[in-house]
Every structure is written in C-alpha cells, then in structure tokens.
Specification:
Layout lengths: L8 H17 L3 H14 L12 H18 L2 E2 L3 E3 L2 E8 L6 E8 L6 E8 L2 E5 L3 H10 L2 E8 L5 E5 L6 E3 L22
Antiparallel strand pairs: 1-3, 2-3, 3-6, 4-5, 4-7, 5-6, 7-8, 7-9
Helix pairs in contact: 1-2, 2-3
Length: 191
C-alpha cells in the first residue's frame, strides 16, 4: 500500500493485474487471487485487456469480479421522479458513492447528456433537464437512462444499464400551470 500511495486507481488496478498474471505464471493461484481482489478494490469496473490472458485466467478474473460485485459493490435502485427532479436510491453501500452520473436522452433522440448528481443520505437527486428536452421526452414517451455510481474521485463503482442498453423511464406529466387570474372588469368612466 505504501508503494502505491499517490497513484491513480486505474494505475493501481493495472499494476495489480500484472502482478496477478505473474503469480499465475508462477503457479501461485492464491497470490493471483489476492492481486485480482486488489485490482477490484482499486477499480471495481476495470476490465483487463482480454488479449493479455488465456481463457482460464479471464474466467478466474470474472469469478472474482462476480464475488466482488455481490459483496462490495453499491446497488443503484430504480430511478424515481419527484416533480421534474430525478432521484436514484443507492440501496447498498452508499457510503462509498460520491456521485451518481446519469446519462439520459428523450427516447430515440440524439446524444445522451451527462448529469452528475451528488449522493446524500443514500440518494442521488436533482434536476436533469429543462424545457425543450422535457417536451421531447413527453412526446417520445419518456427517457432513456444509464446510471453509474462513482467514488468522489470519479472512479466508477457500479453501473445500471448502458447507453447501448438503457433503462426507459416514463416522463412525469407536465406540471399543472394555474390559469392567469382574470382581471375584474373596470368601470368605464361616463362620457
């Protein structure tokens, strides 16, 4: 840990991956497993280059990844609207999440917009769009949404859906706008 202080999570993950490969090459599966776990602690969604390892090594890594996600990854709940603010509950291990990044667009339209929402008390919540985008979402039948939980330093921890396979979230109805007050008729002065 001392030797890796001050380096990025991604660099720490790559170092751990190469140490795991060396340990496997030496026939030390227990040491390799320890380094794979260190990789996942540093960067839980890191995906090593599949060209760097044989299928058996990739299978061992996928097994460690599945265990890590089950035991340590935050869990993002269903997106929910409160008026025109989107809320995402973080239902497990919220203490590790600094931000939930929401990528969204009206169903079937152009590019996704990136909206970071801070996590407080186990929930990310905030406004995600304005005027014209809301109108588009209502006309198109909702929003396509992808979510990513991140540490405060930006390291991805967990995902829910992707831009290629997004969640579809209904757009809430337009807020009721009260009609403008009708002015009382003013008496007409006599001619």
């Amino acid at each position: 840990a001392e030797a890796t202080r001050g380096i990025s999570d991604d660099t720490r993950a790559r170092i751990s991956w190469y140490r795991a490969l060396v340990a496997l090459g030496d026939g030390n599966n227990a040491e390799a497993t320890r380094w794979m776990d260190a990789l996942l602690d540093a960067s839980p969604l890191h995906e090593p280059d599949p060209r760097e390892a044989p299928p058996t090594t990739r299978a061992l890594f996928q097994h460690r990844l599945a265990l890590h996600q089950q035991e340590r990854a935050p869990v993002l709940g269903d997106p929910q609207w409160t008026g025109e603010e989107l809320g995402i509950p973080v239902t497990a291990r919220a203490h590790s999440v600094g931000t939930v990044v929401v990528w969204l667009r009206p169903v079937g339209t152009g590019t996704f917009e990136r909206v970071p929402l801070a996590v407080r008390d186990g929930r990310a919540q905030g406004p995600v769009a304005t005027g014209e985008r809301w109108q588009q979402a209502r006309e198109k039948g909702g929003w396509e949404v992808a979510l990513e939980a991140q540490r405060a330093n930006g390291t991805p921890l967990a995902r829910r859906a992707t831009q290629q396979e997004p969640l579809v979230v209904d757009a809430p109805p337009a807020p009721e706008v009260p009609p403008p007050p009708v002015a009382a008729p003013q008496p007409t002065p006599p001619p």
